[in-house]
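Deliverable D2.4 — example input (structure tokens):
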């Protein structure tokens, strides 16, 4: 997932969201406190979806996911225009360097810290020590500037058309969904999340799974037309790589993910890859309360011993909500 989420288009609390997102990144990258990081992310998300400007910490405290401590920080920022905690964090050049390096695709907090501990604190220094990087991280560095650029929705629509036409021309039985933020109707996206399946491929084809060429062949076609430009990784079920509009070299390079799934697992996969990841977390937690387990493959009932049963038959996203006793949420309503 991309590491810096843009504030939503009409966000009247965007300065507070940025503040909380910075705190979330600090907890994730530096202190490795994922619990706190998630708390800040949720608070940022709540404020980002508010249609009015928050005026005080006390007011914010009434909102979901905002407790005493975050409310105090909001107050401090609203009254002084800054947050001392963040000022201190941002004085530390190691923190700054770790934050920078984790923006390289493929570099996580642990690797970033390792690099900074060995004295590498800038992208220039990283270029000089490329031998320390994996193939993925090298490509992350190569395309650093382009990967930070958001993809406007009009371009997403163009890229979708190229992907669909190319795949369906090769075999018109493929079923294709563009998921992620694009499916949630966002006006711009960080990457392109493609999910494909084929009626000939079901989860009972156990031995077929590892040597299916269904994904490989699609990747070959997209490479042939000059759309796929680099490969980060390619397995039988998952491609990660780099693409660009084949007829326009002035465009930035874009991150492209393509996943293949068995057709009986398609709707669980569509749900999962549409996200948002906060929405998925909430839905999984809710499923567990209802004694179900939900993941990208299936929805299964749990026995009283907590053992998961056979997958529920699922023939639409709606079915998943229905089985869990939830009102259906359209993709654009899942943007937590
Ligand atoms: P974006 O516009 O920044 O790309 O936003 P996005 O499309 O919502 O995020 P994404 O990172 O592209 O992930 C899309 C969905 O894929 C998420 O809902 C998430 O559940 C799922 N997902 C993956 N891989 C990973 C991963 O490595 N980390 C996370 N957090 N989510 C992932 O497929
Ligand atoms: Mn995405
Ligand atoms: Mn993605």
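Example output (designed residues):
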């Amino acid at each position: 997932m991309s590491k810096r989420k843009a504030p939503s288009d009409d966000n009247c609390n965007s300065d507070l969201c940025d503040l909380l997102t910075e705190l979330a990144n600090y907890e994730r990258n530096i202190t490795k406190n994922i619990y706190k990081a998630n708390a800040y992310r949720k608070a940022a998300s709540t404020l980002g979806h508010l249609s009015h400007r928050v005026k005080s910490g006390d007011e914010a405290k009434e909102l979901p996911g905002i407790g005493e401590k975050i409310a105090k920080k909001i107050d401090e920022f609203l009254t002084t225009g800054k947050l001392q905690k963040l000022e201190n964090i941002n004085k530390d050049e190691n923190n700054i360097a770790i934050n920078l390096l984790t923006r390289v695709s493929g570099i996580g907090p642990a690797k970033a810290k390792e690099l900074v501990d060995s004295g590498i604190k800038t992208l220039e220094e990283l270029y000089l020590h490329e031998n320390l990087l994996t193939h993925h991280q090298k490509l992350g560095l190569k395309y650093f500037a382009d990967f930070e650029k958001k993809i406007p929705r009009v371009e997403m629509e163009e890229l979708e058309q190229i992907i669909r036409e190319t795949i369906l021309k090769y075999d018109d039985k493929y079923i294709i969904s563009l998921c992620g933020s694009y499916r949630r109707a966002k006006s711009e996206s960080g990457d392109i999340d493609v999910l494909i399946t084929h009626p000939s491929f079901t989860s009972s084809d156990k031995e077929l799974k590892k040597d299916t060429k269904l994904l490989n062949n699609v990747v070959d076609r997209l490479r042939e037309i000059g759309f796929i430009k680099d490969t980060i990784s390619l397995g039988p079920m998952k491609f990660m790589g780099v693409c660009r509009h084949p007829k326009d070299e002035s465009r930035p390079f874009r991150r492209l993910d393509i996943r293949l799934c068995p057709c009986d697992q398609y709707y669980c996969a569509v749900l999962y890859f549409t996200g948002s990841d906060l929405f998925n977390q909430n839905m999984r937690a809710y499923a567990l309360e209802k004694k179900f387990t939900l993941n990208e493959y299936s929805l299964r009932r749990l026995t009283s011993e907590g053992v998961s049963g056979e997958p529920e038959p699922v023939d639409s996203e709606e079915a998943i909500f229905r089985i869990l006793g939830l009102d259906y949420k359209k993709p654009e309503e899942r943007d937590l």
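Residues 1-8 have pLDDT under 50 and may be disordered.
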